[in-house]
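Course exercise 7: structure representation. Students receive a sequence record and must write out the corresponding structure in token form. The form below is the worked example handed out in class, using Glycosyl transferase (364 residues). Read each field label carefully; the graders check that inputs and outputs are placed in the correct fields and that the protein name is recorded exactly as given.

STUDENT ID: A-19
EXERCISE PROTEIN: Glycosyl transferase
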Amino acid sequence: MKIAQIAPLAESVPPKLYGGTERIVSYLTEELVRQGHDVTLFASGDSRTSAELVPVTDMALRLNGKVIDPIPYHMMLLEAVMRRADAFDALHFHIDILHMPMVRDCLDRTVTTLHGRLDLPDLPAFYRVFPHHPLVSISDHQRLPMPPVTWAGTIHHGLPADLLPPQLGPGQGYLAFLGRISPEKRPDRAIRIAARSGMPLRIAAKIDAVDRHYWETEIAPLIERHPNVSFIGEIDERQKAEFLGQASALIFPIDWPEPFGLVMIEAMACATPVIAFRCGSVPEIIDEGVSGFIVESEDEAVAAVARLKDLDRRRVRAAFDARFTAERMARDYISLYRGLPGARMEAARLRRQLGEEADLQIVA
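STUDENT ANSWER:
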């Protein structure tokens, strides 16, 4: 198939540091190319891909200090996509809602994966106006707040099987927190759980401007009071493999309706079990007693730390291999693309083109 992947411009594809959506777009794009499809990626110019890259901006917007408003650049992105829309058998958007008024003419071969939370108060009214766009959820739980819309499927994220090699040894005896410093991610819970468990905690996380006050007033002082906690900051893919792989467990102490939780399957790929609070997608991702423990309180989390020795890290990795590879994710999306009512197979399109050219030659 000839497929367009349309990525956000905030980060490159893949992102240099933090960036879940752009990371998944990269994994999907590269796997689709590996499986023999003709893929065009619309993204920032500093993206790296084996697909055809259409660079809409010179660099990721988050890294460009001159950018104040991202909307004009995303309008440029949509213009670039629509100029070439007729060339694609399927168009796959990862930019939430911005494109929806513009794709009516190709709606029957368009799909949008919703990567974020859907319980925001402004969204139901929007989706009531655009109920016919084929949407993909990244967990079943993510769908719950939505009004009636056209769900094309739920497709869980996946990672390249060789991206994060499993580390089956005993590790270095610490708990890991990886992601973003924000109230809904609850790093304060992670700190208290580690302190009560008597284990070191290493925090590798970004701090967005909107969360700077939370960091300075609540989390940084808490870290200062607990000498077993160390803050590392943002880390890249190479550092992530060691950071997660050497940990005894990933602590995922969220307090919000997590749409997916990419870090959980990253830990599983490293054969590192996950201790996660029962929120959002967590019960869909973690196999209780196999890839980790699902808890509902800090007391239960502390008890789960004591039970980590009962888990076999080989089974943690096996759970990842069975459910969360990029190969599986790409197969699921190809099946979805082919099921779109207006999807066009490249071979059929070429046959039509050749037939039209033959008709022209007969007329001549």
